[in-house]
Structures are given as C-alpha cells and as structure tokens.
Amino acid sequence: MIVQDIYLPEYDWHCRVYYAVTGYWADEILSELKALGCSGDKYRKAVRNLRSGHLDTGLTYSNQRMRESVMVIGLTSSPEEFAHSFDHEKGHLAKHIASAFRIDPFGEELQYLSGDIAKEMFPIAKKFMCECCRKKLRPL
Fold first, then answer.
1. Is the pTM higher than 0.90?
2. Which positions ≥6 away from 64 have C-beta within 8 Å?
C-alpha cells in the first residue's frame, strides 16, 4: 500500500489517498474513516468493501465541514482498471468538494478542480498506469 496526502489550497481541502489497498489495511483505513465521522450505512459499506479482498474496487468519503476526505483505490487487475478506479474516485472527490462550495456541476470550475486533483495525485498514480512500472512496485 502507498499513502499520499494531497492538499487543494484553493478550497483548503485535504485528502489522504490509499493506493493498492488489500484487506490487510482495512482496520487502519476504517479508523481514519471513523475519525472523519463516517458511520451507519456508509461505514458498513466501507467495511464490506475493504474486507472483501476484491480487485478493482475503491471508495471515497468526505467530511465537508472538516474539508477532509479519504480516498481508497484497491489493488487493480490491470493498468486500465487502475485508470478506471482513479477516474471514478477522483470524480467522487471533485463532486464532494463541488457540493461543499456550491460549484456548478456543468461549469468550468468543476473541470479545473478535477484537473487539479489529478495533478496532485499524478506523482504516485503514474506508477500504476503501465504494467512495467506496476511490476517494479514491490511489495504492494
């Protein structure tokens, strides 16, 4: 597992991103989710997701009041599946921030926000985008 902290200064928003997550790390991530206020059905769904052991899964949880998020991208079966999970979870984060700041979902600001998130994540995410680089990541 690789952990990355990203910060979006324009929104004063912090996100901890967990990459290549396996069930082994579930308790650590669940503790982080609880600290952000995740509870009820959302927490139970996160427990099932993190402990399932399935490939190609992820989750994103945000506490808008705290301007904090946790993003999880599980182990993926291929670079293409990583790109899919990356884009999917990045989209959730962008929409959580957009909701908090009442950003027009059809406007340019949301697209720039999504691009800013991608730029922040890129130094780590790029390692999962090609099979040669993925093979060099030992151990996951």
1. yes
2. 96, 99, 100
Angle between helices 26-35 and 40-51 (to 10 degrees): 160
Q: What are phi and psi of 13, to 5 degrees?
A: -120, 130
Question: One-letter amino acid identity for 134?
Answer: R
The encoded tokens of residue 80 equal 């293409």
pLDDT tens figures, 84-115 = 999 999 999 999 999 999 999 999 999 999 99
Between CA 60 and CA 33 the distance in angstroms is 10
Inform me whether the pLDDT recorded for 138 exceeds 70.
no
